[in-house]
């Protein structure tokens, strides 16, 4: 495993929360070899959001904004 990439982790999380595609499709869009990578990343990112309330506030605003537009 590599180091955490906050931007990529955020994008995976937002994609999962907004696009409604299967994990395998999201994984393919991010050039990941296995759909479990999306699930694992989202689990870790969810834990980070529980610890970092400011980050959670920002990410939730992004998710709400995207969902509002679709």
Can you walk me through this structure?
The chain has 70 residues and is mainly α. The protein contains four helices and no strands. Helix 2 (23-29) packs across helix 3.
Number of helices: 4
In sequence order, what are the helices and strands, one letter per element?
HHHH
- The end-to-end distance, rounded to whole angstroms, is 34 Å
- Structural class call reads mainly alpha
What does the secondary structure layout of this molecule look like, with pairings?
Layout: H1 6-18, H2 23-29, H3 36-51, H4 53-69
Helix pairs in contact: 1-3, 1-4, 2-3, 3-4
Name some characteristics of this structure.
single chain, 70 residues, mainly alpha, 76% helix, flat
Please provide a brief summary of the model.
With 70 residues, the chain is mainly alpha-helical. The chain has 4 helices and no strands.
């Amino acid at each position: 495993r590599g180091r955490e990439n906050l931007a990529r982790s955020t994008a995976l999380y937002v994609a999962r929360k907004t696009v409604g595609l299967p994990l395998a499709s999201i994984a393919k869009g991010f050039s990941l070899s296995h759909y479990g990578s999306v699930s694992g990343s989202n689990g870790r990112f969810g834990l980070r959001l529980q610890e970092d309330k400011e980050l959670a506030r920002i990410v939730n605003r992004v998710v709400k904004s995207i969902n509002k537009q679709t």
